[in-house]
Amino acid sequence: MGGEGRVVLVSNRTPAVFTPSSMEERRNLPVGGLVSCLRPFLEAQGGLWMGWDGNSDGYVDPVPTTVTEVEGISLASLSLSRDEVDGFYNIFSNRTLWPIFHSFPDKATFSHDSYRVYRSVNRKYAAALMDLLRPGDLVWVHDFHLFPLGLELRKLGWTGKIGFFLHIPFPPSEIFGIMPWARELLASLFDYDLIGLQTPKYLHDLKESLGHELGAEIDGDTARHRDRTVKVGSFPVGADAQAFQEMALSQVPSRVSRFLEELPNDRQLLLGVDRLDYTKGIVQRMQAIEQLLDDHPELRGHVTLVQISAPSRVTIPEYARERERLDSLVGRINGKFGEVHWLPIHTLHRPYSQQDLAQLYREADACLVTPLRDGMNLVAKEFVASQTSDPGVLVLSRFCGAAESMDDALMVNPYDFQETASAIYRALTMPRPERQRRWKALFEDVSGHTAHDWCYSFLSALDDA
């Protein structure tokens, strides 16, 4: 990346303002996928990261409330009012855009009032950011919360490079076009210099929508609409493979150490790690476990699924209903098969640190990554990176971005309980040589396309756009 400017990241939220005293302390912090990909890069590179501070103070403040220096990063935190949080985040981002982009239009809410708040909050982000930008900065905007941010920055006079990356899937054009504001949102993308998506499939769907909704001309990696052009490309996100290798091999005690030590030697461990979200296929996964134990009674008492389902968007009705549905189903399955000293499913409704997860990944006989729809899903890559000489097996949904390159996983249709149950049984009974062969091929992919590689790939393309 050339030039004298900084890398400037903009996302819905900033990472927690916390300076760990050691690498061990850092690895014991829970982090989300976006932060785990971007924070190490920006700490090494230096730069600015702006986003909402996560609080609603009841006031409309047009400037960042704080700018804090943490580990070489300038964190600019923006405050939002309660009404802004509700319209921008709770309703339009999470009850309109999220279900549409994950191809669940029946779950979508369409509110013109919330759309107006969404646009006004994007203007607020732009106004705050303009006060912080310097000539030569590369601005990298992240995810669906901030589609129109590039447009708002241009209106305020920013002429420098702006890139946009969509972490979630882009839907087929007939689903995207359901939104009353589909054309406005697509047109705003032409104020960016580069648009990045996770996979070639999502890139194809974006191009199709640009052509269908706007009549845009598509020529390879360039889209043209009226007098404006934008570059588009696929930039698959990677995991920090080396960090997960190191954590998996470390002897540092964690919150899960005692649980793992107390597992009987004849007990096989299945693992699921997700946010609690209807797109993640957790309910369907439980139904597959029930099918597995119905089909293979010899496994009863000898296999346990640990399902981590970190709470997510708890004030949104769809998510509360998903929690109720999951808890009811798990209770029924545990009641059907459980014994005094054994339950088939353990659900843990809280986030875990990377250190905890790495140790669970290492010990799992199989990791079940079975979303109904997902942009990438870094759990699949973190699991592979954490394996040792006696590796577990990855059971992977065909409907997540990771499936595009992870051919040696056991691929499943998560809507098909029988197929998923059969794949889990195959994973539990797979001979070690086959497990090792599959893992080596998967690890070559994961270690060859890391989070650091992804950052440099996108920013280099933005610099050249």
Write out key terms for the chains shown.
465 residues; alpha/beta; Rossmann fold; 16 strands; 20% strand
How would you summarize the topology of this molecule?
Layout: E1 7-13, H1 23-27, H2 33-45, E2 47-56, E3 64-70, E4 73-80, H3 82-101, H4 112-130, E5 138-142, H5 149-155, E6 162-165, H6 173-176, H7 182-188, E7 194-197, H8 200-214, E8 217-219, E9 222-225, E10 228-234, H9 241-249, H10 257-261, E11 268-275, H11 282-295, E12 303-310, H12 317-337, E13 345-348, H13 354-363, E14 366-369, H14 378-385, E15 393-397, E16 410-412, H15 417-429, H16 432-448, H17 451-464
Parallel strand pairs: 1-2, 1-5, 2-4, 5-6, 6-7, 7-10, 11-12, 11-14, 12-13, 14-15, 15-16
Antiparallel strand pairs: 3-4, 8-9, 9-10
Helix pairs in contact: 3-4, 4-5, 7-8, 9-13, 9-14, 11-12, 11-15, 14-16
Question: What do these coordinates show?
Answer:
With about 475 residues, the chain is of the alpha/beta class. The protein folds into two domains: about 250 residues, Glycogen Phosphorylase B (Rossmann fold, 3-Layer(aba) Sandwich); about 200 residues, 3-Layer(aba) Sandwich (Rossmann fold). It contains 17 helices and 16 strands. Strands 3-4-2-1-5-6-7-10-9-8 form a ten-stranded mixed beta sheet, sandwiched between helices. The protein has a six-stranded parallel beta sheet with strand order 13-12-11-14-15-16, sandwiched between helices. Strand 14, helix 14 and strand 15 form a beta-alpha-beta unit. The longest helix is centred in the last third of the chain and has 21 residues. About 0% of the residues have low confidence.
